[in-house]
Design a protein that fits this description.
single chain, disordered C terminus
Length: 339
């Protein structure tokens, strides 16, 4: 009996010892997840002109790491994804020499930035920034230097297209684009955004509501104006964007088609469905309860490209859709609806 208790205690102690490293790692990962959002954003934006240099950037990161008591190896691992291609190549080639030497790692980055500073010093603030620059700006500084703000007057669609193109040029990620919205607006446009910000959860939703609110100017005869879907969907033509009136009445939620709810459908998919009504047959009609007849759906499903095969998830979603239809006639083994 005593031996059993002793053995059990030893096993518990061994298990506790094995759990300690995992617990420490978990704490580190939790700390990683609560990093200051503004610091993370600034760290990514190393493609701007030299308002904040490499030394300042590393000092900011170092202070953050000190507060969270990161080890040298954790500091290096956190910083690596933010480096450009040249810096990453240097690290990979000298990894054995660097090991966990955070100071050596920072010294090299600073020296490289100083050597290249002369090359970039002549770059105009209004020109496209170098893709692999070693300096960075805050989001607000990038918007102020390179973007035009919209006040509610002028061609809203043209401004939006220019803004999205600049997002690509300056490498702003989707989360940065969303955070940039209030920085891009002023005057009446900013007031409108402030009143509707609770319903805007990404840049696509903003684009859709923005174009509904501000009257669209028809494209010029020269045909130089692009459509929004060249940003979202490529070459799909969506003339409705240029003809939708600002005075369009807002319908109650229960009167909207399901795909017209921004929480259920992205702006890109809504554009596609507006221009391709033959695909509506595969979208529930209302939020409350789908009422389309299953046989109607089967007859009107558009033909797919040659060689198309449903994924398992698609087949499951189709089954769920038909099960919610009024007639509730669903075969036990859902057939391939295209064959």
């Amino acid at each position: 009996m005593v031996n059993d208790e002793l053995s059990s205690k030893q096993n518990d102690d061994a298990a506790a010892t094995e759990r300690k490293p995992q617990s420490s790692f978990t704490r580190r990962m939790q700390q990683m997840n609560i990093l200051d959002g503004s610091i993370r954003r600034q760290a990514r934006m190393m493609a701007g002109t030299g308002v904040v240099n490499m030394t300042t950037w590393l000092a900011t990161l170092n202070k953050l790491f000190d507060e969270r008591q990161y080890s040298p190896s954790e500091r290096i691992n956190f910083t690596l994804p933010m480096l450009n291609k040249e810096q990453t190549t240097w690290y990979e080639e000298n990894q054995d020499e660097i090991k966990d030497d955070w100071k050596f790692f920072c010294d090299h980055l600073e020296q490289t930035a100083l050597k290249q500073q002369t090359t970039w010093s002549n770059t105009s603030l209004h020109e496209t920034p170098p893709l692999n620059n070693n300096t960075m700006n805050t989001l607000e500084e990038v918007i102020d230097m390179h973007f035009n703000k919209y006040s509610g007057e002028g061609d809203a669609k043209e401004w939006l297209l220019q803004t999205m193109n600049k997002f690509k040029t300056h490498g702003l990620r989707r989360e940065d684009q969303f955070e940039a919205i209030p920085l891009l607006l002023e005057g009446d446009a900013y007031v409108w955004y402030a009143e509707n910000s609770e319903t805007i959860f990404n840049f696509e939703a903003f684009s859709k509501l923005f174009l509904r609110r501000f009257k669209l100017t028809p494209p010029s005869p020269t045909g130089t104006a692009d459509t929004l879907t060249q940003f979202f969907l490529g070459e799909i033509n969506t003339e409705y964007l240029t003809h939708r009136l600002e005075s369009e009445e807002k319908r109650a939620n229960d009167q909207l088609w399901l795909y017209q709810h921004s929480t259920q459908c992205s702006a890109a998919l809504e554009i596609f469905l507006e221009e391709n009504p033959s695909y509506w047959c595969f979208v529930p009609t209302k939020v409350a309860a789908p009422t389309l007849n299953r046989r109607f759906l089967l007859r009107n499903i558009p033909k797919p490209p040659s060689g198309f095969v449903f994924s398992a998830q698609q087949r499951q979603q189709q089954a769920q859709f038909f099960q919610s239809a009024r007639d509730r006639i669903v075969p036990r083994d859902l057939p391939d609806l295209y064959n």
